[in-house]
Structures are given as structure tokens and as C-alpha cells.
Amino acid sequence: MRKYLISFPLSSTESWQSVFSITLLQKQVSSTIYAGEPKFGKVQAVKGISFAVYPGELLALLAPNGSGKTTTLSLMLGGRKPDRGEIRLFGLDPRQPQARLRVGVTPQETNFPWTLRVEEIIELVNGHFPQPLKVEELATRFDLSEIMHRQTGGLSGGQRRKLALALAFAGGPDIVFLDEPTVGLDVEVRMRLWQEVRKYLQGRGTVVLTTHYLEEAEALATRVLIMNKGQVIDEGSVEEIKGRVGLKHVRFRASHLPELADLAVLERAEDRYTGYVQDADALVRSLVQHNVDFHGLEILPATLEEAFLQMTGETK
């Protein structure tokens, strides 16, 4: 029986025993927000979503802009109360301080008091937790040692992002929410961050990740949750999500192709053809039947990004 760290209601038939256990209801979670101007009234940003987060996993929460992802995160972190339904974080309402003590968060925005030094910011955050990590350990793990005595107002965007990431882990949390964590980071720093995340997961930590870098989610996620228009439209492992769309990425070289319906989806760059097809075998048969002289054929499974785009109707 799986044990939940945090859950949106699933069904009334589940049972469990754990310090992380919760009571699930048949109700689903919904939330209404104002659309920004009175004439638009209210918008139901989240429409009956239902899911759980399990200990030791990295859940990637993926959604197009404006699809309810930000509202969902706010609900999960206790920043917003649902119109109906129930959310539990370690068996508690996420708005209760006892639940939030075990949570780390890296928000998209990294606004710090400009006159405080990096070291002072870390010490300030550490003071809110009963057993925080040592300042020196955080500085080493997140490559902050050389800027510890600098005021945050003089930091680059990437340095502020690294500080925000360090603060998410400062309290020794059981679950960390990473909201677009690698925006503004160079490749080397991004790789270092993901090394730290992998270590955290190996220690039975839990991560909820939102990112527009879907290659990161594909490499790291234990499970993927896809939202669109305020609803959860699919959930599963990376391989399960990719397998459901049935797309294949096809590449090959040919000097000339006849005008065939099977080839209409392919793009050409000189003698190179590439594209996505539902039935790669049918494409190859068509090439052979029409005596096309092709070589360098590659047939690859769809990436997570390609599956996401097809499921949500988005385009690159």
C-alpha cells in the first residue's frame, strides 16, 4: 500500500497507515480565482483535480501557461483554500505551520532584501526550522562560498537563483517544491543542481517540479502529471506518457522523394528529411514500394516534450 506525503482527493476506498497518512474524500479539489479585472468576473482555474505525491519520488507537474499549474502549487502549499475538496500535507491542512516546517520551496521569483548578505539570508531562513542544515554545507553544495559576504542586491540573476535553491533545502525538508528552478542558470550550474536533487531523492526526499525544460523532467522524473485547462489530463511514468501518444521521430537522407501522403508530415533540409509519424513501419514500406533510394534511417521514440505538445495541443 502506497503512503502519501501530500494528496488531492482520490477515492474513499483507499486505506493506509503512516505518519504521512491522510483521509481522502470523494470530493475533488477545485479553485476559483478572479481574472484580474472585474468585467471578467471569476475563472475556475482548477477543475476537479485529484492526485497524490509519494515519498521518495520526483513528480513533474507539467502544463501550458494559464492551465492552472500556479494555482495548483498555491493550493498544495497552503497559499490558497480550495472552493471544495480537501488537501492534506503530512496529514495536515497545508496552511498549518506544523505541515510547512517540513517543506522547502523555490519560487519562480527570487526577491531578497538587497542590503542583506547571502550568509545573513541563509541564517535568517535557518532560524525558522528546528534542525536546519549548516550554513557552510549549503554554501558548498550550492556553489555559494565565494559570494557569502556579498549583498544580495549585487548578485546576478543566476546567483540569486542558486541562493533560492539553497534556501529550499535549508530546513532539511521532507518534500521540496521546485518551481522553474533552473531559469537563468548556465548548463554547468544546472547539472550541479540536479546532482543535488538526485542525492536528496536517494535519501528518500520528495520533489515536486515544474519546468519548461522538459528534457530535465524526462531525465529526472519518477512520475509525470500533465495538466491542461485546469484539469489533469494524464499521469504516469515518463515512458508511459511517451508511449501513449504513439509518435515516432523519423530521420533519413534521400536525394528525391515522390509526393506521397505518407511523407506529407516530413520536413526537408537539403537531402535530410525529418518528422513525426504514427506508423514508422508504414512509412518505410511506402519508401520501399516506391523505390526511393534512402539511407541513414533512424526511428526514435517521441520525447516527453513531443508527447506533451501533442496531448495539450501546443506547438513549438
TrEMBL record:
Chain ranges passing through the membrane: none
Keyword Transmembrane: no
Residue ranges of domain ABC transporter in the record: 27-254
Keywords: ATP-binding, Nucleotide-binding, Transport
Source domain of life: Bacteria
Record carries keyword Transport: yes
Annotated protein name in UniProt: ABC transporter ATP-binding protein
